[in-house]
Write a structure and sequence with these properties.
By secondary structure, the protein is α/β, with parallel strands linked by helices. The chain is built from 14 helices and 13 strands.
Length: 360
């Protein structure tokens, strides 16, 4: 069995700032924290926790692989006294509406730039709060197998305007390259469709959509059979541990940055990696988005959400375990247990800082 190999994560200066801030406050012996229904819960009595009597609901979108980080956040909420419901699987456009309406309290899987349109269409800053950074520098883009890239000198998506190059990736016999794309409703499909027009690829490339997990499994099979493959990829995900960029695949660059308008002003610098490859998608970060009323009433939860960080390598390692068959609720719970044990000092720091915020 593959073992989790989580990196120890160093607790940063934010905790110190929160603790110093709380020391400057003058809490009375009757400090309270409001519940989600507006009732007050005493946090000053011996043994009382800021989340006592409050039930929190969450969603991790429609992708099960991101349940891991949601359950880490839920475990921390439980340590603060909150009860947590089983996370719901909802497509992003509906997810943000549900949070804005108060039907769900938070998600830990907000892609700040990719989901900007969904966020604004659900009420934006009037109803929602974006807090902390769960994981920075998450990537999206297009990859092809390295063997074909080296043999044909392909480095850019724009080169697939050439019908002869595009045919190399034709898996259904119609003469066009088959691009394994992403699920409708994820947001990335809108970027891909925009790129097909912006880079003049409609005549030579077709966007295969459906369940990404099934499509990418077929893509991997074709790769293992020695066939050229073209696919959308993102991090963190197990895929990078199966088809490794630089060894098995390469990221394709795009000729210029062109994104749907709902993502706002995005420059070429915003879509270019540290290695200088313009991926065409904004280099993003995963954050927590929560219902604004819930955050106003729960300073402990807000402080926790501000502090939680999970290294991208740890998420990808856990996702690989799921890919290898450890994907039941019990498996994921065990992975969460192991991650917390490996990062106990950091986890405990989150809890202490959140308690201090509730008392200040």
């Amino acid at each position: 069995m593959i073992q989790l190999n989580f990196k120890s994560f160093t607790f940063g200066t934010v905790l110190a700032g929160l603790l110093l801030g709380s020391a400057a406050c003058q809490p009375s012996t009757t400090d309270t924290a409001a519940t989600a229904d507006g009732d007050a819960t005493d946090t000053s009595a011996d043994g009382a926790l800021p989340g006592d009597g409050i039930t929190v609901s969450s969603t991790h979108g429609s992708l099960r692989e991101v349940r891991f980080q949601t359950e880490i956040v839920n475990r921390a909420l439980q340590a603060l006294g909150y009860e947590t419901e089983e996370p719901l699987e909802i497509v992003p456009p509906t997810m943000y509406l549900a949070i804005a309406n108060g039907d769900i309290h938070y998600t830990s899987t907000n892609w700040e730039k990719l989901h900007a349109g969904f966020y604004e269409n659900s009420g934006g800053d009037d109803k929602l709060d974006t807090i902390g950074v769960i994981t920075p520098n998450v990537l999206q883009g297009y990859q092809i197998d390295k063997a074909t890239a080296d043999a044909e000198g392909i480095t850019s998506l724009e080169q697939l305007k050439d019908p002869e190059l595009a045919k190399l990736f034709d898996s259904d016999g119609n003469g066009k390259a088959n691009l394994t794309g992403c699920n409708p409703g994820w947001g990335c499909e809108l970027v891909i469709e925009n790129h097909l027009d912006a880079y003049g690829l409609r005549d030579t490339v077709e966007h295969d959509q459906g369940q990404y997990s099934a499509l990418i499994a077929d893509t991997i099979t074709r790769y293992q059979q020695g066939e050229p493959v073209l696919f959308y990829a993102y991090t963190p995900m197990w895929l990078g541990n199966v088809l490794k960029p630089g060894t098995d695949t390469i990221w394709l660059e795009v000729p210029f940055t062109d994104l749907p308008g709902e993502q706002g002003e995005v420059s070429e610098a915003d879509t270019t990696t540290a290695e200088g490859v313009n991926l065409g998608f904004a280099i993003d970060r995963m954050r927590i988005v929560a219902n604004q009323d819930f955050i106003a009433e729960n300073p402990a939860a807000e402080a926790l959400f501000e502090l939680v960080e999970i290294p991208i390598e740890d998420i990808s390692a856990q996702n690989r375990l799921m890919y290898d068959g450890e994907d039941s609720d019990e498996d994921i719970a065990r992975h969460v247990d192991e991650w917390i044990e490996d990062n106990q000092a950091t986890f405990d720091g989150w809890i202490e800082a959140a308690k201090a915020a509730a008392e200040s």
